[in-house]
Specification:
This protein is an alpha/beta fold. Helix content is about 40%, strand content about 15%. It is built from twelve helices and 13 strands. Bound molecules: pyridoxal-5'-phosphate (PLP).
């Protein structure tokens, strides 16, 4: 295979010719390879009426293999879901909650990781940790655990501060104490290379539309299948069963033994085609190389912002952050700053009065320099 250089990668992101795009923690742009893959599916559906089930399923299984490589887990533990929330809902519905149970969760997680617990588990006691406490270490979780703690539900990387938490320590603790561990990984996956086979998480979920550079409306779910005997049947449907063909519809089919059983009905094939192409790009470039570039660019960004006297919310240590750098000038209206940046062709996000800047591996140091130069002008 010919080497996938940065120059070649940048050609797959036409956005680089129009703007400096540093908002991967919001929405990742689609590489043109993903657009081609999805277009291939759509063209066939238009011209031939449909894409053969076996053909579409072959792409699904190949995408499952790539997802497994991304996570460092077995393909049998991977399911496709709509988004992060739908994976969290599967976790909530599968866990055998009992009266008197408690759940440890984040007070200031992104709402995708708070609303479902609040809405679906009104009878379960909630115990809260904050992103700041988690940034200091996992003890804040350990302190809250007792014999009635059924689950711990955390973000891997905080959507606002960009802090990355020590999930291995928490996962090991949860496994040791027989506690389910649910992880929202959307702000880390695709930016940081991490092996989830030894993390001790029982459910890891991420929507595809950010750092994975896939379309919105498709997500991935890892399930620790060793826990399957303890899970309640949930989100199961006709395609949770094994079908060889669709001639004999009424003979009961056996339930899949893999995480694919959580794919209850007809899949979002277009999304999976796009996700597959996006994952191929990340894997071809190399997950370690992707992480190294993200680290380098965010490190450079951090230094330039510090030198320009910006207050930085994101922890400094490499292992405590991922692809987000969050900053502000306390006496400036950062919403206005963000709007002026956007007008000048520099895209990031404004959250809670802070500027959240999130470059990806295909961005360059020169773009970082231009971004900070422009930021200094508009925040003067
Ligand atoms: C930490 C986190 N979780 C989840 C989401 C999105 O959830 P969903 O994929 O269900 O829309 C976001 C989006 O900003 C997020 O930052």
């Amino acid at each position: 295979m010919r080497e996938l250089t940065l120059e070649k990668v940048r050609r797959l992101f036409p956005v680089t010719r129009r703007r400096v795009y540093f908002n991967h923690a919001g929405t990742g742009p689609l590489p043109s390879t993903a657009v081609r893959a999805m277009h291939g599916f759509i063209r066939k559906a238009v011209q031939e009426g449909c894409v053969a089930y076996s053909e579409a399923e072959a792409v699904v299984e190949n995408t499952r293999l790539m997802t497994a490589r991304l996570l460092g887990v077995k393909p049998e533990t991977v399911a496709f879901v709509k988004n992060t929330t739908s994976g969290i809902i599967i976790a909530i519905g599968s866990i055998p909650w009992e009266e008197g149970d408690n759940l440890i969760m984040m007070k200031d997680a992104f709402p995708a990781n708070t609303y479902p617990y609040q809405l679906l588990l009104p009878g379960v006691e909630k115990r809260f940790v904050t992103a700041l406490e988690l940034t200091e270490g996992p003890e804040c979780v350990f302190r809250l655990v007792d014999e009635r703690t059924r689950a711990v539900a955390l973000d891997w990387v905080h959507f606002l501060s960009g802090a990355r938490f020590d999930i291995n320590a928490i996962g090991a603790f949860c496994q040791q104490h027989n506690i389910f561990f649910i992880l929202d990984a959307i702000q880390g996956l695709g930016a940081v290379n991490h092996n989830f086979s030894s993390t001790g998480a029982d459910f890891v979920v991420a929507g595809g539309g950010k750092w994975l550079l896939a379309p919105q409306g498709i997500g991935i779910l890892y399930v620790n299948m060793k826990k399957l005997p303890r899970l309640k049947p949930f989100n199961l449907g006709w395609l949770s069963a094994h079908w060889q063909e669709f001639n004999d519809i009424f003979t009961p089919k056996p339930l899949k033994k893999t995480a694919a059983r959580f794919e209850e009905g007809t899949k979002n094939y277009i999304g999976i085609y796009g996700l597959g192409a996006a994952l191929k790009l990340l894997l071809d470039f190399g997950l370690e190389s992707v992480e190294a570039r993200v680290r380098q660019l965010t490190g450079q960004l951090r230094e330039l912002l510090k030198a320009a006297d910006f207050e930085i919310m994101t922890p400094e240590a490499d292992e405590k952050r991922a692809g987000i750098i969050t900053c502000r000038k306390p006496d400036r209206d950062m919403a206005a700053v963000g709007a002026q940046l956007e007008t000048a062709g520099f895209v990031c996000a404004v959250r809670e009065g802070w500027l959240r800047i999130s470059p990806h591996f295909y961005n360059t140091g020169e773009e970082v320099e231009r971004f900070v130069h422009q930021l200094k002008i508009v925040a003067r």
